[in-house]
Amino acid sequence: MATATTTPAAQQVRAQARYLRTSAQKARVVLEHIRGKSFSEARATLTFIPRAAARDILKILESAGANAEHNLELAPNEFVIDACYADEGPTLKRFKPRARGRAGRIMKRTCHVTIVLRHAPDATATKRAAATAEAQRSSAAEATIQAESSRRKQRKADAEAASAAAAAEAAAAASPAAAVTDATTAEIDTPDAVDGDVPAGDEAGVADEGETQAEAAAEADAEADTPHEAEAEAEGEGEDEDETAVDTEAETSADADPSAPATTPDEGDQEARG
Description:
Number of strands: 6
Radius of gyration: 62 Å
Strand content: 15-25%
Mean pLDDT: 77
Helix content: 55-70%
């Protein structure tokens, strides 16, 4: 049975449950978790404590909050747990038969649990303000971390862009001749890009000029090769005349002296030289 009393001068409310069917030792273990906490914190803690006594103590706490709201017309969240304790109640003795005619005693203990709430709006407001400040600090820290991460990413991107630009400049400086050659080739391949389109009437003239240049280049090559060919032909004709003269002398000497041995062209050449 739960009873409630109110002390308006001290702004306290009290709720008590008597003859709970649990031991005082087990109830004290649960009460240690909520002593000194606010009403809302204590209720949340009791909701998630995996002990059988926590269910009975939660009912006592809610009863004390209802007393504060009904008797003092104050919000339960403005109260804190000023005191909570468990006293031993009467023990129910039972017996269980054992071997050889003996009896085993069973002790069914009870307890009386009391919770006292104290009105402390300043403490509640202070805790609320502290929680708000902590949340703001956490938010500021997260914002700072995100900003620093963004700055690091930006610096990394800028460094990569600068490296790419430096590499491109180095490549361009390493091969200026290739760049000039490519530019010249592009200009030769596409003359119309600078001078504009060639009129339709001038296309035949441009073609004739190209053929004339090709013929002039061919004639220049032919003239360059003509002196060498003339020298080679003159040398060949001189050798042929020498061989013909040697053969003629050999035939003449053979006709003049039939008994003389015939001479070969090589021998006649040697005699002529001697």
